[in-house]
């Protein structure tokens, strides 16, 4: 994700961020494209959903078994739910990467952080807040994706049809649509903070080799 974003910055001739601001159309395009590429890993999410689905617990024992069984239904079966993943990844990447640097700079500008820790804290807090907020915003897409992917060799339903089905199934309640979001928020808060801060550490450490 980070590497692809950096590569697309170069390909699109974006002023590299950092040190330049990432809040530009060029950086948004780079982030959008990185999200599309990331969606190519859809088969991994597909297998994960099947392994987690209760109705398949007695059928599948490991990842390899799922991959081998899906093979008999063709390549398309690996990419069930692909349209939703593309939408989620491309849009979430666009928001994350365009807002990451401006938010980090605002955090550092508060001048309440020791200078030696500014970069680390800025990266962690910006990553945490954006990761948790964006994953919460797009949480319903994850619900739709999971419903689409928890099937094998069944008719391919339109994402909007699935959403309407879930919406009615959950009594047209926004709260019901977001069931379990607090766990997702907590996980994202920690995971994205660590991921973003580690990326910042490695980038600063390797900057002398660029």
Automatic annotation (TrEMBL):
Keyword Lipid biosynthesis belongs to the record: no
GO MF: NAD transmembrane transporter activity
Chief localisation class: mitochondrion
Keywords recorded for this protein, A-Z: Membrane, Mitochondrion, Mitochondrion inner membrane, Repeat, Transmembrane, Transmembrane helix, Transport
SUPFAM superfamilies: Mitochondrial carrier
Pfam families in the cross-refs: Mito_carr
Keyword Oxidoreductase: no
Bilayer topology term: Multi-pass membrane protein
InterPro entries xref list: MCP_dom_sf, MCP_transmembrane, Mito_NAD+_Carrier
Compartments where found: Mitochondrion inner membrane
Solcar repeat ranges, renumbered to this chain: 21-106, 118-205
GO cellular component: mitochondrial inner membrane
Domain of life (superkingdom): Eukaryota
Coiled coil (residue ranges): none
Similarity field: Belongs to the mitochondrial carrier (TC 2.A.29) family.
Name listed for the protein in its UniProt record: Solute carrier family 25 member 51
Organism: Caenorhabditis bovis
High-level lineage: Eukaryota, Metazoa, Ecdysozoa, Nematoda, Chromadorea
